[in-house]
Amino acid sequence: MGSLWEVPVDGGEEEPAIPAAKLYTDLMVPWAVLEDGICFNNEETRALEFFDFATRRITRKASREGSGPWGGTISVSPDGRWILYCQVDRNEEDIMLVENFRW
């Protein structure tokens, strides 16, 4: 788990902008910084949520379908009408034995 921190422009102590428990930061960056806030994946609620810089409130923007984990970063259109994200719906691996293999 990771977290996003903020520091006042005029100086001062840094503090978490969004509680670490709400962010899923395994391998990728599952948030998008917008002009008025941050859109992020909340793995606890399985939803795309928005942290508003002005009100400092978090609101749910969309629930995700499926049971798989997030697969990558989030991208939001400039007008905020579209969100693009990856989701892993199926993850399989095969182990194969190759006999008489020569390099």
Topology:
Layout: E1 4-6, E2 15-18, E3 31-33, E4 37-42, E5 47-52, E6 58-63, E7 70-76, E8 83-87
Antiparallel strand pairs: 1-2, 3-4, 4-5, 5-6, 7-8
Residue share in helix: under 10%
Percentage of residues in strands = 35-45%
Give the number of DSSP strands: 8
Q: Largest sheet, described in full?
A: 4 strands, antiparallel
Strands of the widest sheet, in order across it, are 3-4-5-6
The succession of helices and strands, N to C, reads EEEEEEEE
Structure annotation, total helices:
0
The global form is elongated
| Rounded average pLDDT | 78
Quick structural overview:
The chain is mainly beta. It has one domain (4-87).
How would you explain this protein's 3D organization?
- The protein has 103 residues and is mainly beta.
- It has one domain (4-87).
- It is built from no helices and eight strands.
- The chain is elongated and about 70 Å long.
- The chain starts with a strand and ends in a 16-residue tail after the last strand.
Features:
103 residues; mainly beta; 4-stranded antiparallel beta sheet; two-stranded antiparallel sheet
